[in-house]
Amino acid sequence: MKVNKAEIVISAVSEKQYPTDRWPEIALAGRSNVGKSSFINKLINRKNLARTSSKPGKTQTLNFYNINDAFYFVDVPGYGYAKVSKKEREKWGKMMEEYFSLRDTLRLTVLIVDIRHKPTEDDVMMYEFLKYYEIPVLVIATKLDKIPKNKKATHLKRVIDTLELDAEDSVIPFSAETSEGKEHVWSYLSNYLK
Ligand SMILES: Nc1nc2c(ncn2[C@@H]2O[C@H](COP(=O)(O)OP(=O)(O)OP(=O)(O)O)[C@@H](O)[C@H]2O)c(=O)[nH]1
Ligand SMILES: [Mg+2]
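A: This is the predicted complex of the input protein with guanosine-5'-triphosphate.
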């Protein structure tokens, strides 16, 4: 995919603010600090369009990125960050519920997990939540550059087993550092953007 245009359209906290042009949408979900924003930047070849940070909790709103006037990437705030208040967690839950239950232009959610670690209980819950709403899921095992090549297969198997991944769902190993997996991801995503 050649990306000629990529710009943020809105940082939304509720449905009233979502774009209304009905372009197809691909959302990113995953633990705080796992690399959701970096994933978007790498795919669209922009260094810091989606704001990244080494501190967890950078993305706090639903950030809609217009790609080529053709579809949206939606960067979603991460979960699993210990230092958030109960109130903030509730706010996050409401925002997620509203988005994933109502958004009928959502074609696919990319669930990003860290290939180095066993998926957390929150990751499993997120996967089940998406399945509950019957939203197609692509799992990305990111930070591939951080593990030795000979560990890749075992780590991928652990992701598949821990999430109890459905046979119809795929996991693609990826690195925002080295771009590994990028072409494979684009070819997968393009099937959902027709
Ligand atoms: N080595 C390596 N580092 C990565 C990769 N992807 C992301 N990072 C680093 O991980 C940190 C977090 O990345 P972000 O993209 O901001 O993570 P996020 O999931 O958007 O985080 P929140 O917005 O806080 O939920 C940054 O320091 C990135 O540079 C990767 O593939 N390899
Ligand atoms: Mg982010």
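The longest strand covers residues 106-114. The chain has one domain: 6-190.
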